[in-house]
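Justification of resources, computational component.

The compute hours requested in this renewal are based largely on the per-chain cost of generating structure records like the one below. Each record pairs the submitted sequence with a full structure-token output. That output is archived, and it is also reused by downstream analysis tasks.
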Amino acid sequence: MKSEIKPICGLKRTKLSNVIPLDTPYSAFVFPTTFCNFKCIYCAHSLGDTGMKEKYNFVKENMSLDTFNNVIKQFKEFPQKLKMLSLTGQGEPLFNKNIAKMVEIAKKANIAERIEIISNAGLLTPSLADDLINAGLDTLRISLQGLSSKKYKEICGADIDFDKFLENIKYFYNHKKNTNLFVKIMDVALEVGEEEKFYKTFGDCTDRMYIEKMRPVYNGVDKTDGMEYDADRYGRKINSRKVCPLPFFMLGIFPNGDVEPCDGIYKPVVLGNVNHERLIDMWNSEKLKDFWKMQLTNRFDNPKCAVCCAPNDVSHPEDVLDDDIDMLLKRLEK
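The structure output for this chain reads:
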């Protein structure tokens, strides 16, 4: 088996409390689209267009190349490179017909140490694979929804020819140059006893693979509402965390250019819009600093943060800020 069994997230991390406030965010999630071809049972898209509008005031859009170029131009104004630019967020990135061009633009601008896409790969074809590889994509992270056509129908409501789907993933792996190919699957998308089948199926056609735990990422989704858990999606035991660390090291940018201090669906605060303001000004704004202070004192003061499970789901041990709240508040005052 060639593939490593490791989480598909970044594994080289700095202790966050030692370095914030940062002069440049570590990562940015730029949403090429908020459309998706799947309606996975644990995802907000399972609510449908009307349900997402009512629950999250969510509008489906594609990002234009003009807006994307504004984003890339503005990231060049920061004193350092991003560690990671993810062309991902609340939709299926491959839905945007310009996705390979976006990778190429970002790569040529040299604004990030690595450029990644998280995709369900349902729209991946050999031709698109070639375009992404040739554009210089550093990592493709694929989220699987089963190991058969039947399971895909059950989990995401899509008619997938799983054999053809697997062929397309193998094509990407066999033709990639410097791109890493990671795959993961939620435990709920596996039948009982299918763990070894997952490892065997993808062990020789990926660089890294992992089975994650389903968590209540989206408030209001029936499958996970009221779900109790004592471990994050990677299976690591956790205590309930007070502070969400994500806003201290990332930015999220919706297709219309709206900027938030995380990659969530909720838009807990809109810092501005790249078509009217500059990212570096937003990052250094009093508005963001006040949001950081709110996180450190009581994140539940923000009703959208109050229903988000990110601090207990995707926050890594090195990111935990709970033990350093007083120190960080004093540092921010300076």
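The chain has a mean pLDDT of 94. The radius of gyration is 19 Å.
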